[in-house]
Specification:
Elements lengths: L1 E6 L6 H9 L3 E7 L2 H8 L5 E5 L5 H8 L4 E4 L6 H11 L2 E4 L5 H4 L2 H6 L3 E3 L8 H15 L3 E13 L16 H6 L5 E5 L2 E5 L9 E5 L3 E7 L6 H4 L7 E8 L3 H11 L7 E2 L5 H9 L7 H9 L6 H9 L11 E2 L1 H12 L8 E12 L5 E11 L7 H18 L7 E3 L4 H13 L5 E7 L2
Parallel strand pairs: 1-2, 1-4, 2-3, 4-5, 5-6, 6-17, 7-12
Antiparallel strand pairs: 7-15, 8-9, 10-11, 11-12, 13-14, 15-16, 16-18
Length: 442
């Protein structure tokens, strides 16, 4: 009997745990800081066990991992290197859905020398985006093509009928992670030239992208796209960009939040006890001033603007109590957004992932290839985000248990032995990309 340990029982863990338990010959340990969350995932299943785990308790973590073959780490990404160090010490394989950090990359040599697989970026974005990208690129290569342009956008959003708040957004994964992403600079290639967008200008650089049957979305650059020229092995590419999709109005609101200092991660001790007081203290606004008007003045916008009304709806100008007196502005913002922007009973989330490639063939013919995945959550069932993150992680675990991954070390799913079986099984599970091709006249 094979054994797997799943660390973290949060928003996207249920489909992962259910899939592993359905394999039939796998015992699954689920550990979480809130043991009850872990218990809800395993239920009464005879091959499931739930545990309380504070990651600071290294001995408890080692005990949990000691007799398993693979660890699936679904905890916040900052903990992955720590978990990896335990896996390396005990000789265990590891799968995560998070980007490979420099700290994780440093484990590559040691993991290879021990014959271990540390498979990262095996979720939706990152994850399925890599898999479908490499499949499209390799199919083009097999036909003699070269990729001149690669543009990719992904967005986890409310389904149109569930987009019911001024931000057009509800949280289907880590709220803090969503906001932290707004602090990253962006880099991409355009016509052979590298473009660098400073973090404080990120939300100024969006374009409107049309998604069939769904309408227009704001699309802005995500992190460093330039490195994917090498990761995807397309040195010939002239333009490459990976970006994020949001409903209209998101970028200007997040831009203004950044201008107010609400994305600052510096922890402070606040004398204020309410969100209105916090905003006054953060900005040095006198209590005699109208808070909404003072904030609008600071931002150079109309007090009746959509942005100010959205801030008011969120509760930034309210007497709502602060959840902590010592906290960063970003964490206080995270807390109130999480409370106000959750999915209601029966509401669906939606994921959109679209790749657009311009391919040149030896004949001189050029082809535009658009590969699109649109996936909706199940009312009363799994969210789309939980399936599209949890299933790829589960399938990565299965490939390791079956010894079907050839390479060792710190990996991402860009080789055919990983992405082909995962994409094939996801298709059988109903997760399908739609490809459209169009010949371009030169």
């Amino acid at each position: 009997m094979k054994k797997v340990c799943v660390l973290g029982a949060g928003l996207v863990a249920r489909p992962l745990v259910e899939y592993l338990l359905d394999l039939g010959e796998v015992e699954v340990k689920v550990a979480d800081l809130e043991e009850e969350r872990a218990r809800r995932l395993v239920g009464q299943h005879p091959r499931g066990q739930a545990f309380h785990l504070d990651l600071r308790d290294k001995k408890k973590l080692e005990d949990l991992v000691a007799d398993v073959e693979v660890v699936a780490s679904m905890v916040p990404y900052t903990f992955h290197p720590y978990v990896a160090s335990i896996c390396l010490e005990l000789g265990k394989h590891l799968v995560t859905a998070s980007y490979v950090s420099p700290e994780m990359r440093n484990f590559d040599g040691a993991a290879r020398s021990k014959g271990l697989i540390f498979l990262n970026e095996c979720g939706l974005d990152p994850g399925l985006d890599h898999m479908e990208a490499k499949q499209c690129i390799n199919q083009a290569r097999a036909a003699g093509g070269e990729v001149l342009t690669f543009i990719s956008y992904c967005g986890g959003l409310p389904a149109p009928e569930a987009s019911t708040n001024p931000f057009g957004y509800k949280f289907s994964w880590s709220p803090r992670g969503v906001l932290l992403a707004g602090r990253n600079e962006a880099r991409y290639l355009k016509d052979g030239q590298e473009v660098v967008i400073p973090a404080d200008e990120l939300f100024d650089h969006f374009e409107l992208v049309e998604i069939p049957d769904l309408g227009q979305f704001e699309a802005y650059p995500n992190r460093n796209s330039v490195i994917y020229r090498e990761i995807y092995d397309i040195p010939e590419v002239r333009s490459i960009l990976r970006g994020t999709l949001r409903y209209s109005g998101w970028c200007v609101k997040l831009k203004k939040m950044g201008e107010l200092g609400l994305l600052d991660i510096t922890e402070r001790e606040w004398t204020a006890t309410t969100y209105a007081g916090f905003i006054q203290e953060l900005l040095g606004i006198k209590e005699t001033e109208s808070l909404a008007e003072a904030v609008a003045s600071r931002l150079g916008i109309d007090p009746d603007s959509e942005t100010i009304r959205a801030f008011d709806w969120l509760g930034l100008f309210s007497a709502r109590p602060l959840p902590a007196q010592k906290s960063s502005p970003l964490d206080l913002l995270t807390a109130i957004m999480w409370d106000k922007m959750q999915y209601g009973q029966g509401e669906r989330d939606m994921n959109i992932l679209q790749h657009e490639l311009l391919i040149s063939y030896p004949s001189g013919q050029q082809e535009k290839l658009v590969s699109t995945l649109i996936d909706f959550g199940q009312p009363g069932g799994h969210s789309s985000m939980s399936r599209l993150v949890g299933w790829p992680v589960a399938l990565g675990v299965k490939l390791i248990l079956q010894n079907k991954i050839k390479s060792r070390g710190v990996l991402i799913p860009t080789t055919a032995d990983i992405y082909e079986p995962i994409l094939a099984e996801l298709k059988a599970l109903g997760v399908k990309f739609k490809e459209e091709k169009e010949l371009i006249n030169n």
